[in-house]
Amino acid sequence: MREQLNIRWKNERLAATIDFPENLQTCKKYPLFIICHGFIGSKVGVDRLFVKAAEELNKDQSIVLRFDYSGCGESTGNYGKMGLHDFIDQTRTVIDYAYRLKQVDRNQITLLGHSLGGATAVLTASRDNRIKRLILWSSVAHPYEDLKQIVGRDKVKSLKYVTDIDYMGYTLTRPFFDSLLSYQPLLETIEFTGNVLILHGTSDEDIPVQYAQEFENAFAKRRSGTCTRHEIEGANHTISNSKHFMELIQFTRNWANNEISIANTQSVSI
């Protein structure tokens, strides 16, 4: 079952989709995955990445909430006038909404972020203890440098002289890039105490696979919480190949099911 809805954020409307498992029981609480898409992305994902992921996670009796950041997909707003602080705030607004859903187990909320959404997920989870675990797919580690590389260094440099630049039909402003300079996800990993899964393709053309190791090293410095890293041989940034996607989602499902099972066992013993 799939439900389309809008979540209010300030004066904007965030388009969202909730994917429920089959045979949903109203008296039962289910684990929840919230998916954070990347730079100028959408809740559908390139080659339906997030739709397919939701369908697979539903098979494990989990609820999935996907949403479009303001100015992306079907959400209102101007993406290029936003900042990374706005994406964090929007994510927390979505968490607020999900936290009130009667079908959601509040002790089993996972943020799953892809690309820039991975960085946003880290920064959000470090500020919000409602997030119990974190999954990073092809995650950005250095927001400003990574997006400058993607958009084009000369284009971004030209913002010293112009108010905005065009990229793929999106109008990006100087405040957008300035906001990226204010955040270092690798330094904020220390604040998140939950368990983490990191997945990255070795042939990622946008975000270096070495970032997976950088994130693992950063999370290893914490006093609590485990970190698991897996690299998918030959996979590109959006995991477009069907074989690579199956490896990605199977590893994700196995890890998540184990995490959920352990958490349920601990809650029963308490």
Query: Overall 3D geometry?
Result: globular
Our count of helices gives 9
Q: What is Rg?
A: 18 Å
The sequence of SSEs as H and E is: EEEHEHEHEHHEEHHEHEH
The CATH class name reads: Alpha Beta
Overall average pLDDT: 96
What profile does the largest beta sheet have?
Answer: 8 strands, mixed
**Helicity level, as a percent range?**
25-40%
Domain module tally: 1
Q: Which class of secondary structure composition applies to the elements? A: alpha/beta
Strand content: 15-25%
Instruction: Report the CATH topology name.
Output: Rossmann fold
Spans with pLDDT under 50 lasting ≥5 residues?
Answer: none
Strand segment tally: 10
The CATH architecture can be named as 3-Layer(aba) Sandwich
Largest beta sheet: strand ordering: 1-2-4-3-5-6-9-10
CATH fourth-tier homologous superfamily: Alpha/Beta hydrolase fold, catalytic domain
Q: Would you write up a description of this structure?
A:
This protein has helices at 49-58, 84-99, 116-125, 143-151, 153-157, 174-181, 185-188, 210-219, 242-269, and strands spanning 2-9, 12-19, 30-36, 63-67, 104-114, 133-137, 164-167, 170-173, 195-201, 227-232. By secondary structure, it is α/β, with parallel strands linked by helices. The protein has one domain: Alpha/Beta hydrolase fold, catalytic domain (Rossmann fold, 3-Layer(aba) Sandwich). Helix 2 (84-99) packs across helix 3 (116-125) and helix 4 packs antiparallel against helix 6. The relative contact order is 0.13.
